[in-house]
Each structure stands twice: as structure tokens, then as C-alpha cells.
Amino acid sequence: MTLFTERVISIIQSIPAGKVMTYGQIAALAGNPRGARQVVRVLHSMSRSHQLPWHRVINAKGEISLDEDMFSQKERLSSEGILFTPSGKINLSLYRYEPVLNWIAEEDM
């Protein structure tokens, strides 16, 4: 497993109930600002084995990207207290999670 993948898993596991992060936000924090599609790959292939809260990851527009699990994802987020706008979006200024990560501080040293 690559360092990027390990970091993506760690970041996703850290998202608390009632908060969301975007694919691009996770990729940037994991060390690859252009790696949003890699985050999608990690979610697709490792959500079950690592018990990732996949439903807390959304796109940069505040929308659910998964067509097949859209209703399940919306239901899960709603049950955690996340409210959707009338157009079906999530207000990222209210619900975005901004973690503080130890490896960022370590790399600055």
C-alpha cells in the first residue's frame, strides 16, 4: 500500500459523524492535490475492508456523486444531522471537516 493510500484511509476514517470532506480535499491533505480520482479508487476498493465512512465523502460542489448509492448516502448523512439545500446540496461552509494532520507538521520540519 502506498503512503498516499494509507493517508487517504486515515483521513477518511477521521471524518466525524455530521461532517463531510471532498474528494479533492482528501487528496490534497494526503499529498496529491490532483489525486481526487485516486481517492475515488480507494473508496471503491477499500471501504468495506477498512470500514470507511464512505458516505461522508462528497464532491467539491457539495453534491453526492454516486448515482447507485445516492439515496443511501443522503439517508446516512441526514441521519447524522446534515441538512440538504432545496437543490440537494450540502453547505460546505457548515459541514466541511478540516482536520489537523500530524504528517503535515512533520514534513514542515
Brief sketch in words of this structure:
By secondary structure, this protein is mainly α.
Strand order of the largest sheet: 1-2
Percent of residues in beta strands: under 5%
**Termini Cα gap:** 25 Å
Reading the helices and strands in chain order gives: HEHHEHHH
Total count of strands: 2
What value does the Rg take, in angstroms?
Answer: 14 Å
Overall SS class: mainly alpha
Q: List unreliable stretches of 5+ residues.
A: none
Mean model confidence by pLDDT: 90
Tally of helical runs: 6
What is the helix fraction of residues, given as a range? 40-55%
Large-scale geometry: globular
- Major sheet, described briefly? 2 strands, parallel
List the defining traits of the structure above.
single chain; 109 residues; globular
3D architecture notes:
By secondary structure, the protein is mainly alpha-helical. Helices cover 48% and strands 4% of the residues. The protein is built from 6 helices and 2 strands. The chain has a two-stranded parallel ribbon. Helix 2 crosses helix 3 (36-46). The longest helix is centred in the N-terminal third of the chain and has 12 residues, at 3-14. It is globular and about 40 Å long. 25% of the residues are buried.
List the helices and strands and how they pair.
Elements: H1 3-14, E1 21-22, H2 23-30, H3 36-46, E2 57-58, H4 70-79, H5 92-95, H6 102-108
Parallel strand pairs: 1-2
Helix pairs in contact: 1-2, 2-3
